[in-house]
């Protein structure tokens, strides 16, 4: 039934959001005099404002932390503190790739019978590095690193690869990025929720649950595909 099966990367095949969460805790501690809620709210607003300029990913997150620190301290943030934030970013970029349960086994199994794509958004260099370090790159016939995931983005990818939407399946953890736009273009979507999801990714148009499948974990995917044939 499917010619191509595509996977999201971050928080679908390997842990990612947890790295941001741990860094945000350190950032709160650095600005502890302002209170965690104020820091979190200001950082979130700054990130959303900056998405169109810096895009998704660690580098944009670091720039937003620096801007937040400047705003909350009325410009009194020290050079040492800015250096701290930059170090947070370096630690995030160097963090080991920790595959989610079942990722390797499922990707390896499906690659034997299907053409696989990896479709992820974020900073180009960071994403390329993570894919290479994941040990999964050789299982994919193609990799698409995009600035955002919309119905238009997916349509262009399918057109470029000459894929019929009705014979395409996308697996991901984000309703906003991996499920809703896939349903909108008439392809098959499989939602595998992660432990936590960034607030921005939780903001999405409603979608009928009958138009996508939700799995408790990735290990159930091969069984779902067999049933769908």
Can you summarize this structure?
By secondary structure, this protein is an alpha/beta fold. Helix content is 49%, strand content 12%.
Report on the structure:
The chain is α/β, with parallel strands linked by helices and 229 residues long. It has two domains: 4-14 and 98-228, 3-Layer(aba) Sandwich (Rossmann fold), CATH 3.40.50.1000; 17-94, Orthogonal Bundle (DNA polymerase, domain 1), CATH 1.10.150. It is 49% helix and 12% strand. It has a six-stranded parallel beta sheet, sandwiched between helices. α2 (36-54) crosses α3 and α3 (58-72) packs antiparallel against α4 (79-94). The chain is elongated. The model has no long low-confidence stretch (mean pLDDT 93).
The CATH class of the largest domain is identified as: Alpha Beta
Q: Assembly type of the shown chains?
A: single chain
Total helical elements: 9
Structural class: alpha/beta
Global geometry: elongated
Low-confidence stretches: none
Q: Main β-sheet, in a few words? A: 6 strands, parallel
Gyration radius, in Å: 19 Å
Average predicted confidence as pLDDT: 93
Strand content: 5-15%
Number of domains: 2
Percent in helix: 40-55%
What's the end-to-end separation, in Å? 5 Å
Strand order of the largest sheet: 3-2-1-4-5-6
Annotation, overall tally of beta strands: 6
Question: What is the N-to-C succession of helices and strands?
Answer: EHHHHHEHEHEHEEH
Q: Specify the CATH homologous superfamily of the largest domain.
A: HAD superfamily/HAD-like
């Amino acid at each position: 039934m499917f010619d191509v099966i595509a996977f999201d990367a971050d928080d679908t095949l390997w842990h990612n959001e947890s790295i941001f969460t741990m860094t945000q805790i350190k950032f709160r501690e650095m600005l502890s005099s302002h209170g965690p809620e104020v820091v979190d709210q200001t950082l979130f607003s700054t990130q959303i404002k900056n998405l169109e300029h810096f895009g998704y990913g660690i580098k944009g997150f670091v720039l937003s932390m620096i801007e937040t620190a400047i705003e909350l301290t009325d410009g009194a943030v020290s050079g040492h503190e800015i250096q701290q934030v930059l170090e947070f970013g370096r630690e995030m970029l160097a963090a080991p790739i920790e595959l989610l349960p079942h990722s390797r086994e499922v990707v390896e199994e499906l690659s034997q019978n299907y053409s696989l794509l990896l479709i992820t958004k974020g900073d180009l260099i960071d994403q390329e590095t993570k894919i290479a370090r994941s040990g999964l790159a050789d299982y994919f016939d193609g990799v698409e690193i995009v600035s955002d995931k919309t119905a238009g983005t997916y349509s262009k990818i399918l057109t470029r690869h000459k894929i019929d939407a009705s014979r395409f399946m996308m697996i991901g953890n984000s309703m906003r990025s991996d499920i809703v736009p896939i349903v909108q273009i008439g392809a098959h979507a499989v939602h595998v929720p992660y432990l936590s999801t960034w607030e921005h990714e939780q903001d999405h148009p409603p979608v009928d649950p009958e138009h996508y499948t939700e799995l408790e974990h990735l290990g159930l995917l091969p069984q779902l595909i067999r049933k769908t044939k």
